[in-house]
Amino acid sequence: MTSALTTHDGQPLHKSLARALRREKLRSLLLIAPLLAFVLVTFVFPIADMLFRSVENSIVPDTLPGTTRTIQSWDATGDELPSEEVYTSLADDLLLAQELKIHTRLGSRLNYDQPGIASTFRKSGRQVRKLDASAHLDSFSEFNKEWGTPSAWADIKTHALWPTAFPASSIAFNNWTRYIISDEGDDADLSSMTPYGTVYSALFYDVQKFNDDQWSQLTASSSAVSHLFTGLKDQLPNFPSANYKEQFLDIDDGWGEIDNWRTIHRLSPRMVDSYYWASIDRERTVEGVEHKPANERIYVKLFIRTFVMSMVITVSCILLGYPIAYLLATLPTRTSNLLLILVLLPFWTSLLVRTSAWKVLLQQQGVINDILVWARIIGDDGRLALINNITGTIITMTHILLPFMILPLFSVMKTISPSYVRAAKSMGATDWTAFRRVYFPNTIPGIGAGSILVFILSIGYYITPELVGGTSGVFISNRIAYHISSSLNWGLAAALGSILLASVLILYWAYDKVVGIDNVKLG
Amino acid sequence: MSALPPYASTSQRIWHYTFRYGICGAIFVFLITPILVIIPLSFNAQDFFTFTEAMLRLDPEGFSTKHYQDFFTNNDWQLALKNSFKIAPMATILATAFGTLAAIGLSQAHVPARRAIMAILISPMIVPLIISAAGMYFFYSRINLQGYWSVVLAHAVLGTPFVIITVTATLVGFDKSLTRAAASLGATPIRTFFKVQMPLIIPGVVSGALFAFITSFDEVVVVLFLGSAKTKTLPWQMFTGLREQISPTILAVATIMIAISIVLLTVLELLRRRSERLRGITAT
Please, is B110 exposed, middle or buried when counting C-beta atoms within 10 Å of its C-beta (0-12, 13-18, 19+)? Predict the structure, then answer.
């Protein structure tokens, strides 16, 4: 008789082992969990949330709930201005927006895509209260006095067709409610008030779109609102059409410009791609995606500059780091440990200290220019501009990132046995051939690791270019910082940031493939 | 390369010395000069950023400690110094505690999704600081946590990758049979951890902590975004000083910070030697 192996408590061995393995996995996860949660909550989530701003566009539909709905039926490719209905909802939306003082914020948002529109919004915000909105309020009240009473609206709101058959007026009514609460406080008695005129104008457009079925439902004798709607259909042709379009055109010419309307139309959805097009110097127009005017194209150039400068810095680091790493790897340990301190000291010195040191060295009245003048290499009037330009950024960043190249190169070179080169030479290779064919290929993993590291760090740099780069030596990071803290165009900052982050993550992935994250060495 | 063989030809000799003293010497000068130049300049008696003639003549008149006096009496700098020393240790403690635990967890034999977890935990080191800072800026203002604690938490998260890397590196050389031996002699897992594992990985923990400290102590982008005039740190003060009116006091501060890094570097080097010695004994 054969029996399965069991542990002392009678469990089959394989079960017991599986349990032990499960427990071990659980224990390791429990140890990792606190940090993982910490990093996810305070790092990964905030970044994801920030990057989401690059597509997020709620401000437009939230501030103009009515207009973003009515403008959908407008043909944005044509040459006609939107219909009177769209201007009606604009009047209604703006009334609330200026009461809440959010119309200028919306203006600045739209201004990113359509320069000039902000002033149209500012101006209209001041004037919108003066609009004459009485046309439909009067017509409805003349048709039936009941329409001018608060109870009419209370009744309509309880009807089964509210809000489906009343898309425009339900939005307008809601705007009016918010307006009153903002104006009079939370304890405003809404049930004793009748809405202002633009709500009636919205209703006018809703009523015109009722179908026969809806008419019969509203006028049915069982309906609580039958007295309001019975006979209304026949009277509608006698109602005047709204005249908001004319009034808006009087307030500001911007409302007669079709491009402004196209912008509102394009930015109506809750999520838009406009920031991404802007960050590659393009914009969406009715004819499709187009280049921006030549004098507004800056980001592609800035991205290219960031990449090219990072590449130059990486190559300089290889050129300067390779000899040093080679020297350190071939000297006796005692000497190389001493020299290693010369590499580690800059590595450990504060970034700002090194940047200020270079600022002192490189400026026009600085140490380097003084030495060159003293040595009569240049004249006193020919002092070199070494700072606040590309040169300054490249010199300083090469110095700052050089240790990140030397250290991985050094650790790779240390593992190359000197007998390889000796063997090559014993077979007749010259020094150069032995280096080129034997030693150098062995150091390529080190070059790869160092280069990716330096490149990743360099394309995201902010502080050093900000301090020594002037205007020509800045990176994309500086532009992102500008949009976050000065221009407050957070959406564009997020879009630029997403592109930057995507390139870094691709390189990070490559680094993981080439070196392995586990093998990162520090000092 | 290490030594020139006696049979080396003249051209080999020339190349050898050119390489060693010419090329490498020049690069070392490039590496170290900026740091060394700062030190004498910080004792400049004038408010210049270059050597005055009196300094070059080694005339005592040309030197003074007035920039240091300014640093120690100026309220702005003192507040910044105090804040730096209030923020960095707290961030270091958090980063080291979380990071060490996670590193021990990650070095176990069977960790599910190890690669993915590692990639997430190391990412604070890789993501450009401007993006991290922007994300944190919106995050902390949304949860309404501003000032001291937001900076501490932000710095802690930026410091953890360094702790993980250094502690994991010490754990790679850790001989598992030591814990088994301890267990077979009747030690509980907790006792084993404190009596056997901890003493061996402590150099890694401490050097990770030093990295976390210097990360926080040297960090400026996040402070610029999250901090206010009340929570300004030394780098914050230096950054604004460098951008606006550059005052020679910065050079005195820089010299003090160089001294701090030399101390840290020495501690780190001693730890590395100790760790190598300890691991030399335990290597199988």
Answer: exposed
Among B38, B134, B218, select the one facing A50 at the smallest CB separation.
Answer: B134
Q: Is the Cβ pair B261, A345 closer than 8 Å?
A: yes
Residue A39 has its nearest CB partner, among B38, B160, B254, at: B160
Cβ A25–B111 below 8 Å, yes or no? yes
- Calculate mean pLDDT across residues A390-411: 92
Question: A56 forms bridges with which residues in the sheet?
Answer: A271
| pLDDT in the model for residue B136 | 95
Is the minimum CB–CB distance between A372 and chain B shorter than 8 Å? Answer: no
Q: For chain B, say whether A522 makes contact (Cβ under 8 Å).
A: yes
pLDDT for residue A20: 86
Segment A471-484 mean pLDDT: 91
DSSP string of A172-185, one letter each residue: HHHHHHHHHHHHH-
Q: Domains in chain B and their CATH numbers?
A: 10-62 (no CATH), 74-282 (1.10.3720.10)
Read out DSSP for A288-318?
EEEEPPGGG--HHHHHHHHHHHHHHHHHHHH
Q: Give the Cα separation of B28 and A323 in Å (integer).
A: 10
List chain B residues with CB under 8 Å of A35.
98-99, 101-102, 121, 160, 164
Residues of chain A numbered 329-358 and touching chain B (CB < 8 Å)? 330-332, 339, 341-346, 348-358
| DSSP class per residue in A382-417 | G----SSSHHHHHHHHHHHHHHHHHHHHHHHHHTS-
| Chain A residues near residue B220 by CB distance under 8 angstroms | 351-352, 463
Distance from C-alpha of A128 to C-alpha of A104, rounded to nearest angstrom: 13
Report the pLDDT value the prediction gives residue B282, as an integer from 0 to 100.
45
Q: Where are the domains of chain A?
A: 11-48, 63-131+243-272, 134-238, 299-519
Give the class (CATH, top level) of A299-519.
mainly alpha
Instruction: Read off the pLDDT band of A454 (50, 70, 90).
Output: very high
The two three-digit tokens of residue A307, written as one number: 């990449």
User: Of B127, B130, B136, which is closest to A462 when you measure between CB atoms?
Assistant: B130
Rounded Cα gap, residues A440 and A40, in angstroms: 41
Q: How many Cβ atoms are within 10 Å of B10's Cβ, its own excluded?
A: 7
Q: Cα separation of A268 and A436, whole Å?
A: 62
The Cα-based distances of A224 to A117, A147, A148, A229, A268 in angstroms read 45, 13, 16, 10, 36
Q: Which of A22, A313, A349 to mutate to test the interface with B (most CBs of B within 10 A)?
A: A349
Q: Is A18 on the interface with B (CB under 8 A)?
A: no
Place of tokens 């014993």: A426
Q: Do B120 and A39 touch (CB under 8 A)?
A: yes
Q: Nearest-CA distance from B276 to chain A in Å? A: 14
Query: What pLDDT is recorded for position B283?
Result: 39
Q: Measured on CA atoms in the order A365, A369, A372, A377, is the torsion positive or negative?
A: negative
For chain A, positions 225-264, list CB contacts with chain B under 8 A: none
Cα separations in angstroms, B29 against A52, A346, A370, B275: 46, 12, 18, 31
Answer with the residue of higher pLDDT: A523 or A182. A182
